[in-house]
Amino acid sequence: MFVSANEVYGHTVGIYLRAGSQGAGNLVHDNTSGIQVDSSATAESNRVYKNTSIGIVANAGVVQGNFVYHNSTGIEAPGPTAKS
User: Fold this and answer.
1) Is residue 37 part of a domain?
2) What is the tens place of the pLDDT at every residue in 5-20?
3) Is 23 part of a structural domain of the chain?
4) β-strands 13-17, 67-69: how paired?
5) Which domain holds residue 23?
6) Percent of the chain that is helix, strand, coil (3-state, to 5)
């Protein structure tokens, strides 16, 4: 699944990327957590801001080239293969 060019706000998790999915070029704001990345998913070139908890939660997968600001925590990477 490819998630692109969306404005996402007002949710518990704005965008949840699971195995093999990709999120790019999205505007993600005013959620509890902006983007959650699991398995072999990729989040890149997203603008992620003003989420009340975490901008991007990278449990695994790839996180690169995102503009992340004004979140309680910018990027949390507890997973073994996550990078930013």
Assistant:
1) yes
2) 999 999 999 999 999 9
3) yes
4) unpaired
5) 2-76
6) 0, 50, 50
